């Protein structure tokens, strides 16, 4: 019964195609909703520890989602009232192999864990605009 072998192979190929489609959808679901970045936990040295992800901006926080993780993709939240940019630099050393020379690496404090984000020029401008548009805490205290 040669046809039963063909049917079995066909079923396996269809199952692989369906699984590949769902894997692709899972990996790309957030890409249209945020900004692509590289992130690593501080302190770190060299080019080690960088993870691909997406920053999704909300009113008072930005969420970082890891791209290549199936369960609990959200890695952390950055609260706008608590975070501060500690330093900004260009890639150096072996980091240049991972990033474009126009990439800006931003060290962020006030979150747990403290992180570095590698941002394209437009993503860097978006993060700065989001931080600078934060309302003053005095407005909240005065009830305005």
Explained architecture:
The protein is α+β, with helices and mostly antiparallel strands. The chain folds into two domains: 1-32; 34-133, Pleckstrin-homology domain (PH domain)/Phosphotyrosine-binding domain (PTB) (PH-domain like). The chain is 31% helix and 30% strand. The protein has three helices and seven strands. It has helices spanning 2-28, 121-132, 137-142, and strands spanning 35-41, 51-57, 61-66, 74-79, 84-89, 104-109, 115-119. It has a seven-stranded antiparallel sheet with strand order 4-3-2-1-7-6-5, covered by helices on one side. A hairpin with a 7-residue loop joins strand 3 (61-66) and strand 4. The longest helix has 27 residues, at 2-28. The mean pLDDT is 81.
Coarse shape: elongated
Strand content: 25-35%
User: Reading side by side through the largest sheet, how are the strands ordered?
Assistant: 4-3-2-1-7-6-5
**Whole-number radius of gyration?**
21 Å
Tally of DSSP helical segments: 3
Q: Give the CATH level 1 class of the largest domain.
A: Mainly Beta
Strands, total number: 7
Mean pLDDT: 81
Structural classification: alpha+beta
Low-confidence parts: none
The CATH topology name of the largest domain reads: PH-domain like
**Can you name the CATH architecture of the largest domain?**
Roll
How many structural units, i.e. domains?
2
Task: Give the full name of the CATH homologous superfamily of the largest domain.
Answer: Pleckstrin-homology domain (PH domain)/Phosphotyrosine-binding domain (PTB)
């Amino acid at each position: 019964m040669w046809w039963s072998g063909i049917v079995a192979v066909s079923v396996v190929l269809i199952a692989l195609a369906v699984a590949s489609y769902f894997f692709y959808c899972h990996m790309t679901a957030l890409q249209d909703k945020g900004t692509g970045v590289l992130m690593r936990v501080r302190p770190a040295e060299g080019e080690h520890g960088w993870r691909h992800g997406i920053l999704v901006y909300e009113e008072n926080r930005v969420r970082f989602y890891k791209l290549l993780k199936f369960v609990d993709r959200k890695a952390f939240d950055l609260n706008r009232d608590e975070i501060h940019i500690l330093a900004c630099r260009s890639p150096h050393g072996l980091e240049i192999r991972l990033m474009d020379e126009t990439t800006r690496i931003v060290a962020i404090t006030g979150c747990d864990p403290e992180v570095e984000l590698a941002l394209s020029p437009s993503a860097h401008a978006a993060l700065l605009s989001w931080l600078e548009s934060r309302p003053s805490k005095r407005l909240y205290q005065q009830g305005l």
